[in-house]
């Protein structure tokens, strides 16, 4: 297969690119390096089956159209990401996530190409449900709080894909990622694990925001890539939405303690109020736990890496 990946030089995209090349596919990437780096592709740079274009998918819709016409499948990962980035740059977030996806889906529908787009567990918003399932109603916060522009823009992407599927027969699938982590993820845009591990390796305080009782499930990028590889080949996933995440729930305070333990660090934990970390009125999600029975029933997928594996892998890559 010829696979076109937007954001292919990013954290998830570069791992997916390696997996596709290893499986014998050819890969074409469009990436504007806004939150990624060419170095993420160092391990595959000389592979003749890889073509990389520095390209902005919002601005360069004609070039995007040509690349989609030439490929067999599209995996759309390019997006504005990271809670801190989103809170600071809401206009950029909306423009990238809405118009970028609009360009991708318009061309993919025109040529009838197999398409997977990345969405996020953020779309569940402030839901108090114990587990989040794909057909749940969603509880996104007010536009007065710019955090929610990320969830809203990604949710619009999901509606867009479903609309193109219904009206134009687009063979498309949505995936909702729950806190994907692993080597090459940067802490620059807010992500907690690369931050905590980097702080622990320097024996600096680990910055726990809020009361640290908020909880998340962290999924290793290798498991996420495996899920994408299973879905792309599966026609039954067309017109559907899938959660992709781990089942190991951990509070952020416990996470900080585990990182300190596994890295043999002498760091302490420093609690920072949300309004200092982000902005006044910032709203966090208290708990985020995915129901992954849908992708499991379809493909047999379950994550193989534990949180301990993840911390060890990230620590090794940062050392
Ligand atoms: N967080 C933290 N310290 C940091 C960065 C993040 O305590 O230095 C918290 C953040 O407030 C959230 C959780 O860790 O409750 C996960 O944050 P991340 O940005 O990684 O992902 P999110 O789940 O918010 O999308």
Give an overview in words.
The structure is a single chain. The protein has 11 helices and 13 strands. It has 319 residues and is an alpha/beta fold. Helix 1 (11-22) links the parallel strand 1 (2-6) and strand 2. Helix 1 (11-22) crosses helix 7 (221-232). The chain binds uridine-5'-diphosphate.
Q: Low-confidence parts, pLDDT < 50 over ≥5 residues?
A: none
- Enumerate how many helices there are, as a single number: 11
Q: How much helicity do the residues have?
A: 25-40%
Shape: globular
Query: What separation lies between the terminal Cα atoms?
Result: 36 Å
Mean pLDDT: 96
CATH architecture of the domain at 2-181 and 220-245 and 290-303: 3-Layer(aba) Sandwich
Bound molecule types? uridine-5'-diphosphate
Count every beta strand, where a strand is a DSSP E run of 2 or more residues.
Answer: 13
Structural class label: alpha/beta
Taken as a percent bin, the fraction of beta residues is 15-25%
Instruction: State the major sheet.
Output: 7 strands, parallel
| Rg (C-alpha, Å) | 19 Å
CATH superfamily of the domain at 2-181 and 220-245 and 290-303: NAD(P)-binding Rossmann-like Domain
Q: According to CATH, what is the topology of the domain at 2-181 and 220-245 and 290-303?
A: Rossmann fold
Q: Provide the succession of SSEs.
A: EHEEHEHHEHEEHEEEHEEHEHHH
Name the strands of the widest sheet in spatial order.
3-2-1-4-5-6-11
Q: In CATH's first tier, which class of the domain at 2-181 and 220-245 and 290-303 applies?
A: Alpha Beta
């Amino acid at each position: 297969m010829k696979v076109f990946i937007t954001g292919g030089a990013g954290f998830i995209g570069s791992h997916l690119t390696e997996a596709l090349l290893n499986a014998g596919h050819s890969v074409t990437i469009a990436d504007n390096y806004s939150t990624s780096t060419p170095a993420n592709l160092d391990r595959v740079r000389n592979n003749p089956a890889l073509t990389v274009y520095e390209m902005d998918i919002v601005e360069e819709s004609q070039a995007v159209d040509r690349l989609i016409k030439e490929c067999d499948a599209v995996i759309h990962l390019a997006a504005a990401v990271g809670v801190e980035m989103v809170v600071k740059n809401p206009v950029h977030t909306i423009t990238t996530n809405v118009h970028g996806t609009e360009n991708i889906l318009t061309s993919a529908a025109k040529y009838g190409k197999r398409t997977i787009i990345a969405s996020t567990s953020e779309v569940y918003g402030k839901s108090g449900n114990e587990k989040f399932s794909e057909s749940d109603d969603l509880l996104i916060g007010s536009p007065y709080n710019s955090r929610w522009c990320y969830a809203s823009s990604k949710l619009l992407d999901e509606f867009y894909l479903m609309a193109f599927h219904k009206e134009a027969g687009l063979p498309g699938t949505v995936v909702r990622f729950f806190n994907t982590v692993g080597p090459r993820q940067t802490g620059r845009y807010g992500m907690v694990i690369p931050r905590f591990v980097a702080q622990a390796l320097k024996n600096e305080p680990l910055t726990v925001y809020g009361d640290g009782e908020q909880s998340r499930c962290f999924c290793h990028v290798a498991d996420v890539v495996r899920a994408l590889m299973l879905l792309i080949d599966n026609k039954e996933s067309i017109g559907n939405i899938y959660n992709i995440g781990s089942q190991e729930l951990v509070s952020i305070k416990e996470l900080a303690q585990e990182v300190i333990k596994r890295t043999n660090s002498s760091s302490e934990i420093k609690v920072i109020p949300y309004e200092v970390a982000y902005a006044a009125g910032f709203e966090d999600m208290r708990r985020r736990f995915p129901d992954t029975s849908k992708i499991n029933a379809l493909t047999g997928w379950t994550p193989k890496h534990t949180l301990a594996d993840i911390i060890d892998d990230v620590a090794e890559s940062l050392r």
